[in-house]
Amino acid sequence: MTAKLVLFDCDGTLVDSQHMIVATMTEAFVKVGHAPPEPAGVLSIIGLSLPEAIGRLDANLDAATVGLVAEAYRDTYQAMKFRLAETAPLYPGALDALKALAARDDVLLGVVTGKSRRGLDAILETHGLTGLFAVLRTADDGPSKPHPFMVVDAVAALGGDASDTVVVGDTGYDMLMARAAGAFALGVTWGYNGRDELAQAGAQALADSFAEVPALAMGLLDGKE
Questions:
Q1: pTM (predicted TM-score)
Q2: Name one Pfam family in it (predicted).
């Protein structure tokens, strides 16, 4: 790979899926006979893989029950899939920014997300994004964020280098993952963590709108930021 790599988180970065995630997690807990977590708690774990997220939401659950909640979550998500355009819309400017980056000869795009591959595929298909990404890494592939695995593996799959890679995400988990992998960390402020949380987790630049993302990403990669 001679191109630079821009890796995007999904929930809270590309799509505004908070209401869908809260509703799905609530129903999953109820289905297995447990009190649902508070919405604020659910928002705080967005970005983690599903079993780790559920374990953090209720530390009293044993592994078997975590598995049952995760299965219920997946089933509920699939039942809602036909409503993704409504319940997980793209953030304003996302498509234009992705197309602007994809049009460059020196850039490849990818996704690194705590979603399952099935869930990510549904999002990409719903919004017509499938053909834009050269590499996809999900919770099905390895350890959860903030472990650097997804970034390291995505870079390796394209024969690249972490020093030529930037991760674009909305949570501290994304920033910590990026920095642990040796990649640049670009935080976006329209998602589920604030500016201070992103900065404390290692964000090297912050975008307040998707229109800013291409220039900020390339600035980091070209050593201008």
A1: 0.90
A2: HAD_2
